[in-house]
Design brief:
about 50% helix, 10 strands, Phosphorylase Kinase, domain 1, 6-stranded antiparallel sheet, about 450 residues, Aminoglycoside 3'-phosphotransferase, Chain: A, domain 2, alpha+beta, globular
Length: about 450
């Protein structure tokens, strides 16, 4: 941590002063959390003691779907109902952000001591989730959360919210996203009627010594089908391994008495997965200075693949295996190799880490990209029935093919979308960091 005086930007000095006021003391030292949203850890002197505080700022990159004030109001409701969220000190208006206590514990069940601790923590989290699902909806009506009306709205969940943001920011043809949206709209589960509070991005918590110490991150929370939260376990498991998800489903059923409809879980798995590529498609198409592009591309590709693989499973489509083509070094290969080695020796802060990842991705594309592109153009040309000359034309023609909505060729289309998405992911894999589980747990 560094003294607050060493941070020169006025906006953060305003935050530090406001945090001190809320806590009843004075901010002494701060440390910025290296991530895609502005966030700070602070030490505040209060009545002779040092209090650790966390400031969670609003997203600054334009891909936010819900306002951060929404998250704060939701956390207040949960706190009032005994859900173990971090203690809330208040809401900062300029810059906007939530001020809360630093809860004890650590994230990510991959760091559990053993399988027994992992199971105990996950069991407790599932019990807390069931309690959140049982809160009277009137408490959420009071803060403006909208109840879905009818089975179709319950089934679609908050998909229209994500699609609206995606449409507003769309920069280029997105054939996988467009196909998955069509599929989701024509396969809505129409037999569901229960509406509860849902976290929107479940299984985020801190734990210590076999116990959950705090539940976190309610940015995407809304009212919908509780099975949407259970489906989200599969997405969370990609970045923070949760153990046996089927066991967690059985635990939830035991606590609530609710049958786990695996068909609905599959639908919401595809829907939840698609939210991520919809949210980041625009910045992946037109990245700006300072963006951790490999991180965003990994979310775009991996969760897009998760959506199409889930759809393939529902439709009974057998997917092809995919491997990188034979490597072919260009005359510039030595430059890419040297760039990676140079960055590997440099500082390990966030900016240098981002630069290293981009260099690793560029080296991979230099080795395999040309051959992969040739395979892709041939694949798309066969499907659309005409020769395509480059990747942009391939995307455009493939999106046109999607909109023709010839369901008799869905299996071919699904295999094509999966193959080309996975190939791009394989090219990026040397630079993927945050997603240790790239194979998704099956729905059992």
């Amino acid at each position: 941590m560094i003294p607050v005086e060493q941070v020169k930007e006025d906006r953060w000095q305003r935050v530090f002063a406001e945090v001190g006021r809320m806590v009843g003391g004075r901010a002494l030292r701060v440390e910025r959390q290296p991530r895609w949203r502005p966030a700070w850890f602070l030490e505040v002197e209060c009545d002779g003691e040092v209090v650790r505080v966390y400031y969670r700022g609003d997203r600054e990159m334009g891909q936010g779907t819900y306002d951060i004030r929404h998250e704060y109001e939701v956390m207040r409701v949960l706190e009032d109902h005994g859900i173990p969220v971090p203690r809330l000190y208040g809401f900062c208006e300029d810059p906007r952000g939530i001020v809360m206590a630093c809860a004890p514990g650590r994230a990510n069940l991959a760091t559990a001591q053993d399988e027994a601790e992992r199971c105990a923590v996950m069991d407790e989290y599932v019990a807390i989730l069931a309690r959140m699902h049982s809160i009277d909806l009137a408490a959420f009506d009071a803060i403006g959360l909208q109840r879905p009306e009818g089975a179709r709205q319950i089934g679609l969940d908050d998909l229209p919210v994500w699609e609206k943001g995606y449409r507003q920011g769309k920069q280029r043809p997105e054939p996988l996203i467009e196909f998955a949206l069509l599929w989701l709209k024509r396969n809505v589960p129409m037999h569901r009627s229960r509406t509860t509070f849902v976290t929107g991005d479940a299984a985020q918590f801190l734990f210590d010594d076999g116990k959950v110490t705090a539940v976190l991150d309610f940015e995407l929370s809304h009212l919908g089908d509780p099975l949407g939260d259970l489906a989200a376990f599969r997405g969370r498991d990609v970045s923070e391994p949760l153990g046996d998800i089927a066991r967690a489903y059985r635990k939830y059923a035991e606590i609530t008495g609710e049958e786990i409809d695996l068909g609905v879980i599959a639908y919401h798995s595809a829907r939840f997965s698609l939210n991520t590529p919809m949210a980041v498609a625009a910045v992946c198409a037109k990245p700006f200075a300072g963006l951790n592009l490999p991180q965003y591309l990994s979310w775009y590709l991996v969760f897009g693949r998760m959506a199409i693989e889930t759809i393939a499973g529902v439709e009974g489509v057998e997917l092809d295996s995919v491997a990188l083509p034979e490597a072919a070094e260009s005359r510039h290969a030595g430059m890419f190799e040297l760039l990676v080695k140079t960055l590997e020796r440099e500082r390990t802060d966030y900016e240098f880490g981002t630069a290293l990842r981009m260099a690793q991705a560029a080296r991979s594309v230099d080795l395999w990209g040309d051959a992969a592109d040739k395979e892709d153009l041939a694949l798309v040309s066969v499907l659309v029935g005409k020769s395509v000359g480059d990747w942009a034309e391939a995307d455009s023609e493939l999106e046109r093919f999607v909109w023709e909505d010839d369901r008799s060729r869905d299996a071919e289309l699904i295999r094509c979308l999966h193959r080309r998405t996975l190939m791009q992911e394989l090219l990026l894999r040397p630079a993927i960091r945050e997603l240790p589980n790239l194979d998704f747990q099956p729905i059992r």
